[in-house]
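User: Predict Response regulator transcription factor's structure from this.
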Amino acid sequence: MRLLVIEDEAPMRTALVETLRAEGYRVTSAPDGISGLELACTEGFDLILLDVMMPGLDGFALCRELRKRGRDSAVLMLTAKGQVEDRVNGLDSGADDYLVKPFSLDELLARIRALLRRKDRESTISDEFSLGNARIDLSKRLLVRDGTTLELSEKEAGMLRLLASHPGETVSRERFLDVVWGYHAYPSTRTVDNFIAALRTKLEDDPARPRYLVTVRGTGYRLEP
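Assistant:
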């Protein structure tokens, strides 16, 4: 899972990054709201830890802008402001949860796990769906096209599930590696390209000119429903 820490206080930012990496997460950090917003809008993150009180662009404004741009990463706000109206403002700006400083690391990690579980449940899809003249059954790992039944490997089925969970959205190569292969395994991003090529031969009428598994140059792939 990929996490983004946006925190302007260097000691806190360093402590969060080191703690989360020790838990097995892939972590990127930003020292201010402007650079954090740019990262959040150009890369795919499962969850964003967002400090509220930052110069330039504060956490409330940043979160509102994220939601305005259609970014659906889970957002956990971190702040020293514990008044009810501040928590309401944070949630109304689009945050999924709100944690008041100082907090225990155990509680922080529990909140993160809960948000990631919720995100996984929200992104579930039916095991059976169609793409053009192809019928796909992810539970059986089968693809039927033009009367021919083809088997899908475990990784191919996992990649299709991830793509189908986010139709029309770009899925980065790193996200494929995180979700399908797992953070403990580190194949190269070229591995993702090879699996996409294999999927295209099964799914596309013309694999050289894909209609459904579309390349997003420099980033990853997108499923066109």
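The mean pLDDT is 88.
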